[in-house]
Design a protein that fits this description.
β3 (54-62), α2 and β4 (82-84) form a beta-alpha-beta unit. It is globular, with a radius of gyration of 18 Å. The chain has nine helices and 14 strands. With 276 residues, the chain is of the alpha/beta class. The chain starts with 6 loop residues before the first strand and ends in a 5-residue tail after the last helix. Strands 1, 2, 3, 4, 5, 6, 7, 8, 11, 12, 13 and 14 form a twelve-stranded mixed beta sheet that branches.
Length: 276
């Protein structure tokens, strides 16, 4: 694998997806905990993204904090990726919080939050960039998530907030064989209340405006981020033309999810104190 994951990726055949004269800069944040194989897969997919006049920098938050990640990436010629080591285990949400806080002090147009075990369509990033480039009212845009083992099954494509119960979100997804064109129906994007945190692109200036989101350790980082962006006046969007794949467990049988949902009192105190 060539070390071209940081720098200019200019491919004229996709110029129509991003039409802007100056170079677009994107910081990519990936939180990981010793998932070396899956991390390498998503890094390879990033290298295959079809972009035009776009400079990307990749920041891997090493949640294991054992100094092995940098050596591993160099072994596979991912030498230009910056590894951030918090010094302690922070959990998934804490890792994103750490990376976002680091990148928020640097100068970028956009920040792309990615899970370490997703696979990316070659146009996953460019279609998200197009949404933010063409629609100033959108502060954050997410991808459509398909099931890796069932490629025609949508796993997530946006959420509505359930205001009557502490199970805070209700999925639109888990439907079969729905094409992006059918979802959009001549609309540039779908307006939602929350996008799942598997692939989120947000404006750097939005982060500067709202601040870095709270460290929830495991749950609710994506929910809180989207709600804070909405409260600041921006639209949360989903572009189903941006596709990623991931295999998730059946959350209907994961009681630990309910446990963490109920324990995130900070979230409920801030957004829905009436439910407490």
């Amino acid at each position: 694998m060539k070390s071209y994951l940081s720098g200019f990726l200019t491919q004229p055949e996709v110029q129509t997806h991003v039409s802007r004269r100056h170079i677009i800069t994107v910081a990519i944040i990936i939180e990981t905990h010793q998932k070396f194989n899956s991390l390498c897969s998503v890094l390879e997919d990033i290298g295959k993204q079809k972009l035009y006049q776009t400079k990307i920098d990749i920041y891997v938050v090493d949640n294991a904090s054992d100094n092995k990640m940098q050596a591993y990436l160099q072994k596979f010629n991912f030498a230009h990726i910056q590894v951030l080591q918090p010094g302690k285990k922070l959990g998934k949400s804490g890792g994103f919080y750490y990376g976002l806080r680091f990148v928020s002090k640097l100068k970028y147009d956009y920040i792309w939050l990615l899970d370490d075990d997703v696979r990316l369509d070659p146009l996953a990033l460019s279609t998200l960039i197009t949404t933010l480039q063409d629609h100033d009212e959108v502060g954050l845009v997410g991808s459509q998530v398909y099931h890796r083992k069932l490629p025609n099954t949508i796993q997530e494509f946006g959420r509505l907030i359930n205001g009557d119960h502490s199970s805070s979100t209700r999925n639109f997804g888990k439907q079969n064989n729905i094409l992006s064109d059918e979802l959009l129906q001549s609309k540039p994007y779908l307006r939602v209340e929350n996008c799942v945190g598997k692939s989120l692109l947000l404006r750097h200036r939005v982060v500067q405006h709202i601040g870095v989101f709270k460290d929830y350790y495991l749950q609710f980082d994506d929910v809180d981020l989207c709600l804070r962006v909405r409260k600041a006046g921006w639209i949360i969007a989903l572009n189903p033309s941006s596709i990623v794949w991931q295999t998730l467990p059946n959350l209907d049988f994961c009681t630990w999810i309910d446990y963490y949902n109920e324990c995130n009192l900070y979230y409920w105190q801030k957004h829905r104190p009436d439910l407490l």
